Amino acid sequence: MNPPRLVLTSGEPAGIGPELCLQVAAGRLAARLVVCADANLLEARARALGLDVDIRLLAPAQTPPLHQPGTLHVWPHPLGEPSEPGHLCTGNATSVLAMLDTALRACREGRADAMVTAPVHKGIINDAGIRFSGHTEYLAERTGCPLPVMLLAAGALRVALATTHLPLAQVPGAITTRLLTDILDVLHRDLVVRFGIPRPRILICGLNPHAGEGGHLGSEDGEVITPAVDAARARGIMVTGPVPADTAFTARSRDGADAILAMYHDQGLPAIKAMGFGEIVNVTLGLPIVRTSVDHGTALDLAGTGRADPGSLIAALQMAIALAGKS
């Protein structure tokens, strides 16, 4: 197989994304890598951090050669305003989103095999007057994907989410039997197709403490989640649950599952981040393209200090390589 073509978006310019891209350039990577970024910003950040990186501009139609350590090929995206580490600016929001559009277009047109995203800052994009709730939702809207599913992976542990960036008070009303049925279909299909697991085993968490304890601690587990589980089993999907979330992530439970489906963001993510933060990959399931990302935010306090850890971005690139070309 030819080395996959990866397009990496550098994310919020005031955050750690640009310097993570520079750090990645120093290592080996079995791929053709191009970064969507402001080349001047990358050069300035490299000088400030003492990083020796040869930045080479490419035209949008040009495919980068096989990555060589110390070289970074760039599809240029000039910023709207000068950017300083740690200082957000609404004037750069459109440029940040333009990077995503370029990467997505390259994947959809067959010029790239996968896109990898450095973190963006949702707040500053919204402050610029642009409705934005996250990469997952943005890419789904752009591709017409009816149901994107966020999955975080750390080695053999994979955690998918039924709801993502939603206030906790709105979670119970957002979870329906139809939604969970569709999510289980997407999760099962991508575990088979993307991850190459012939008979994936899925563990589904209950919404309430003790999975509702027979209805004494809430009715959603029996009335909403259980029917979705039964329907999935009838279609041949191997799913267990709903199980109490407080035991779903024990070693015994994890060993018996290829993926765990949590009901909301802070039910599933604290567990996987406690076990593998810095090496976790965010994968968006359900899209017509491969998209991976880091497990952290923009870390404005670390931007420009040289202390940012590229581990999660390297893991995201390696995951993109593994998933690219599978359909």
Brief summary of the model shown:
The protein is of the alpha/beta class and 327 residues long. Helix content is 37%, strand content 18%. The protein has two domains: 1-145 and 287-327, Isopropylmalate Dehydrogenase; 147-285, Isopropylmalate Dehydrogenase, CATH 3.40.718.
Write the layout of secondary structure elements.
Layout: E1 5-9, H1 17-26, E2 32-37, H2 39-49, E3 54-57, E4 71-76, H3 93-108, E5 114-117, H4 122-127, H5 135-143, E6 149-154, E7 157-161, H6 171-174, H7 177-193, E8 201-205, H8 220-234, E9 238-243, H9 245-248, H10 251-255, E10 259-262, H11 265-276, E11 281-285, E12 291-293, H12 311-323
Parallel strand pairs: 1-2, 1-5, 2-4, 3-4, 5-12, 7-10, 8-9, 8-10
Antiparallel strand pairs: 6-7, 6-11, 11-12
Helix pairs in contact: 7-8
Structure description:
It contains twelve helices and twelve strands. It is α/β, with parallel strands linked by helices and 327 residues long. It folds into two domains: 1-145 and 287-327, Isopropylmalate Dehydrogenase, CATH 3.40.718; 147-285, Isopropylmalate Dehydrogenase (3-Layer(aba) Sandwich). The protein has a twelve-stranded mixed sheet, sandwiched between helices. Helix 7 (177-193) packs across helix 8. The radius of gyration is 20 Å and the shape is globular. It starts with a strand and ends with a helix. 48% of the residues are buried.
